[in-house]
Design a protein that fits this description.
679 residues, Rossmann fold, eight-stranded mixed β-sheet, 14 helices, 33% strand, oligopeptidase activity, serine-type endopeptidase activity, Prolyl_oligopep/macrocyclase, hydrolase
């Protein structure tokens, strides 16, 4: 591949010249946008939402305790802590702090960002703690002794890498990391930057001596292994993710034999006891019957391995309804579905699969399952919220019903705010839903349209704490588009927009933008759009292909150079979504929208704020840097801000997140807002 890109030097993430460029571009953006009283109010308001002690401390049950990770003004890096259910139910739970990340960072002189804890089941006496420098995906791993509240002297530790590690038992783990040597002499990491091999590592032994139990290919996205330690049903599974959406899965027997689990490579499946549940992501013919994508089937797992395909249909999609999630309690299968992007929840009795009543759930709310404890009980934890209703936490059982035990405070006055659903018609005639949230006294005016449109991620209604305070309460209209590429209507809503179908994402979003204007809700000059990551790519396409539809765009941690995206950081893992630019046939359709290549001096571009993070080791900051450099080369004005920390989320703590949010909203009020509308 030839590349005459004059800005390749900006891909040197921490190069002196590149960082000098970053600082030189940050300064004018900060000087322009942060000096006003409104910016101070926006930042303070966002930080209050993120830091308030009154928000729900969400928990996960691990044995007899409930565990929580918490950030606030006094602990910006966070506390890992636990409590008992009886205490948690009260207004002021008694928290037992296990790890103070702020204290640890100060003690070690590292900018640690919490990246998660994996506990040894079922004793939950040890935990594998992941800590990231500055919020990157790459992390160090250390073993923590929960009872002694100290790092295990004989613990499993891994240096900074994009590792995968999980418990087999108290003294054994599966680990994939950037090994110094591999038995086959091939790289330890895939071309996507994730582990290619998995080893079984025993306590007290050298990682280099740990035997390899499974290996994928360099061109894969990743290889992994997991031990299902369910009492009476202990099984080991390994897999090769051949691309982002397809995998080859096996059961690993004690003698090392690999038994292929012969489900479609793009299906999602779960083995629970002797039940195999399979969610088809493409049409599937099973036992003489044809099923559409999005169907959930259950089989007898041992019989399935022997070739028996006798099954039961647990969920069948229709043109309005899709399955979003499923999980188990001890007695029930829990199904969460969307009907025109509205949540429904079902409980099915295990074995008979008959429905049982669901009691205690709020009406007109988006409901999600947070946690269950299927080995021991029918306990279930759920979240519920809407655009105008602050989140609530529900707890109970699938046998006796659930009830609200915690509620978040309201962060803006939603008593005179309403949400409506409309449908736009895309270029091919498809009806595309979107939600409009605004004060009841606002008929038309500044409007912010948010979109993502990729990787089967559904954009469901949820509380708009920061947006409510920073935009809606000030008179702005907030819109969320449920465009193709997401999963709102099941897998096909996504798969039709992969690779050569990518244009459907862009056409859908543009159709929503036009529909907002046609309905009189806004004008092109007052319409802004915002998106991050894959949504940042969407913003780049809007800037270069549909600039006439928008007055301003906020483009965050974006992909923009689709000619080189697969060569940068984790980009190779997304070729199943976008295509391979090195394949001439696939570059043909990618080139039709790649924003970096489509910047033409004669084409007008809306006002833009482009933001990214130096520490983002998933989407390379070079995308944003080069796009801005090319805009400036063409004489365009553009605001740029790059957080030196923050990872793919763009912020390493709540203060950084509040600053980033205020920067975006100040930019929007200055461009499409002009003057705020007070009550």
């Amino acid at each position: 591949m030839t590349n005459d890109d004059p800005y390749l030097w900006l891909e040197n993430v921490t190069g002196d010249d590149a960082l000098d460029w970053v600082r030189a571009h940050n300064a004018p953006t900060v000087d322009e946008l942060t000096g006003s009283e409104r910016f101070a109010d926006l930042e303070t308001g966002a930080l209050e939402v993120l830091d308030t002690d009154e928000r729900i401390p969400y928990v996960r049950r691990r044995g007899e305790f409930l565990y929580n990770f918490w950030r606030d003004a006094a602990h910006p890096k966070g506390l890992w802590r636990r409590t008992a259910l009886e205490s948690y139910r009260g207004p002021a739970p008694e928290w037992d702090v296990l790890i103070d990340v702020d204290a640890l960072a100060a003690e070690e002189g590292e900018n640690w960002v919490w990246a998660g804890a994996t506990m040894n089941r079922p004793a939950y006496d040890r935990a594998l703690i992941s800590l990231s420098r500055g919020g990157a995906d790459a992390a160090v791993v250390r073993e923590f002794d929960v009872e002694s509240r100290s790092w295990a002297a004989d613990g499993f530790t891994l240096p900074e890498a994009k590792s995968s590690v999980g418990w087999i038992d108290r003294d054994t783990v599966y680990v994939g990391t950037d090994f110094a040597d591999t038995p086959d002499g091939l790289p330890a990491m895939t071309s996507s930057g994730y582990p290619r091999t998995v080893r079984r590592w025993s306590r007290g032994t050298d990682l280099a001596d740990a035997p390899t139990v499974f290996a994928g290919e360099v061109a894969d996205v990743a290889a992994g292994a997991v031990c299902d330690s369910t009492p009476g049903y202990v099984r080991h599974f390994v897999s090769r993710s051949t691309d982002f959406f397809n995998a080859l899965d096996y059961e690993l027997r004690p003698d090392g034999e690999l038994i292929r689990i012969d489900v479609p490579t793009d299906a999602h499946f779960t083995v629970r006891h002797d039940w195999l549940t399979v969610l088809a992501r493409s049409p599937w013919s099973v036992d003489g019957r044809d099923y559409p994508a999005g169907t959930l089937l259950v089989f007898d797992y041992p019989a399935y391995l022997d070739g028996d395909r006798t099954h039961h249909v647990l969920f069948a999609p229709d043109e309005h309804t899709s399955l979003q999630d499923y999980t188990y309690t001890r007695s029930h299968l829990v199904l969460v579905t969307l009907h025109d992007v509205a949540t429904r929840v079902e409980f099915r009795r295990l074995g008979t699969w008959e429905p049982d009543p669901v009691t205690g759930l709020p009406e007109l709310a988006t409901v999600g399952v947070l946690d269950t404890d299927p080995d021991h009980s029918d306990e279930i934890w759920l979240s519920a919220s809407s655009f105008t209703r602050a989140p609530s936490l529900l707890q109970g059982t699938t046998t006796d019903g659930v009830a609200v035990i915690k509620s978040s405070p309201e962060f803006f006055d939603a008593s005179q705010v309403s949400a409506q659903q409309f449908f736009a018609t895309s270029d091919d005639g498809t009806a595309v839903p979107y939600f409009v949230v605004r004060r009841d006294d606002v008929e038309s005016g500044p409007t912010l349209l948010y979109g993502y449109g990729g990787f089967e991620n559904s954009q469901t209604p949820g509380y708009l704490g920061v947006a409510g305070r920073s935009w809606i309460s000030r008179g702005g209209t907030y819109v969320i588009a449920n465009i193709r590429g997401g999963g709102e209507y099941g897998p096909s809503w996504h798969t039709q927009a992969q690779k050569a179908g990518r244009h459907l994402v862009h056409e859908d979003f543009a159709a929503v933008a036009r529909d907002l204007v046609d309905r009189g809700l806004t004008t092109p000059a007052q319409l802004a759009a915002q998106g991050g990551s894959n949504g940042g790519l969407l913003m780049g396409v809007m800037a270069t292909t549909y600039p006439e539809l928008f007055g301003a765009l906020v483009c965050q941690v974006p992909l923009l150079d689709m000619r080189r995206y697969h060569l940068l950081l984790a980009g190779a893992s997304w070729m199943a979504e976008y295509g391979d630019p090195d394949d001439p046939a696939e570059w043909e359709f990618i080139s039709k929208y790649s924003p970096y290549q489509r910047l033409h001096p004669e084409t007008p571009v809306p006002e833009m704020l482009v933001t990214t993070s130096t520490r983002d080791d998933r989407v390379h900051p070079g995308h944003a840097r080069k796009f801005v450099a090319r805009m400036e080369e063409q004489g365009r004005s553009v605001r740029y801000y790059e957080n030196i920390e923050g990872g793919h989320g763009g912020a390493a703590d709540n203060r950084q997140a509040a600053f980033k949010s205020a920067l975006a909203y100040e930019f929007l009020w200055r461009t499409v807002g002009v003057a705020e509308r007070s009550h």
